[in-house]
Amino acid sequence: MSRNVSLRRRLEYAGIGLTAVLALAMICLLVVDALRAVPIVGELYDQARIAGWWADYYLGTNVFYHPFMWRSIATGILIGVVAPLVGTYLVHREMALIGETLAHTAFAGVAVGLLVSARTGWNGSLMLVALIVGILGALGVQWLAERTDTYGDVPIAIMLTGSFAVGTLVISYGRGMTGIAVEDYIFGSISVVTPSGARLMAVISVVVVGVIVATYKQFLFITFDEQAARVARLNVTWYNTLLVVMTAVVVVGAMQILGVILVAAMLVVPVAAATQIAHSFRETLYLSILFGQAAVIGGFVISISQGLPTGGSIVVVAIACYLLAVFASGRSTTAISTH
């Protein structure tokens, strides 16, 4: 038994190591893409395109030569890391609905950005507007939860419906204006991933992973015993706010690929799969990231080979991973230790 456990852990560590290398490679690729005007970096950029051409030639595809596909794939890989990472805390704290709420809030931000762009000719990043609005929405949810006597999910439901209502009103008001088109943001599309959006996702990924690593013990304490954390004089309100803000920025980045409707799935489904077979919280973190990567890579393969929407393909693969984990575990729930 101990030999099997040791082998399992080595495989998990190997998978996490490969995922870290892949994510770092995607960030480097985005850096090269952003700095390609620099002579030395430009040479690397040209070599990368040549390598992509050869990959397309041998695989019979028309994917890896095009920079916009680099950005889309890199964004997806990074989503597969940070969404399950943050989602693990949300699921264990029974806050899974907050991802959907902040996605709708970010949708309102995109709608506002599109309207401003159409009325004024502003050419700024819509993702930046969505990020600002998403963070404000996250702070609003936390403020309502701390200062009202309603049940915990009521502020979340209010923000979900209210933000989507604002978004639909803004879109209806701007209907017919040039540039008002939000379908890709609702359903997700690789064409939505702009250079600035991909770079924003890279920054988000680095920041979120850094914060989780630095505050792992604090978040673990709050997740499993919030009352004891308060007694221990831990600033629970601050960490709760930090968690919802991180959720907001991850949702904004993931919305580019998955869309408003499906973005919450990557916060929940890989974590749900991991909880079926994990025996500790740390193992749940590792496995949720691995399931997230499997969903993203498998979804891209299906999407590209069959010409299907990327967001839907990723979520379907994630659900398939969840069902496999359920069958593999042979149980509906798993006792999770905090180690």
UniProtKB/TrEMBL annotation:
Q: What SUPFAM superfamilies does its record include?
A: ABC transporter involved in vitamin B12 uptake, BtuC
The record gives the membrane topology as: Multi-pass membrane protein
Q: Which Pfam families match?
A: ABC-3 (PF00950)
Primary location class: membrane
Which controlled-vocabulary keywords does the entry list?
Membrane, Transmembrane, Transmembrane helix
Return the similarity comment: Belongs to the ABC-3 integral membrane protein family.
The protein here is known as Metal ABC transporter permease
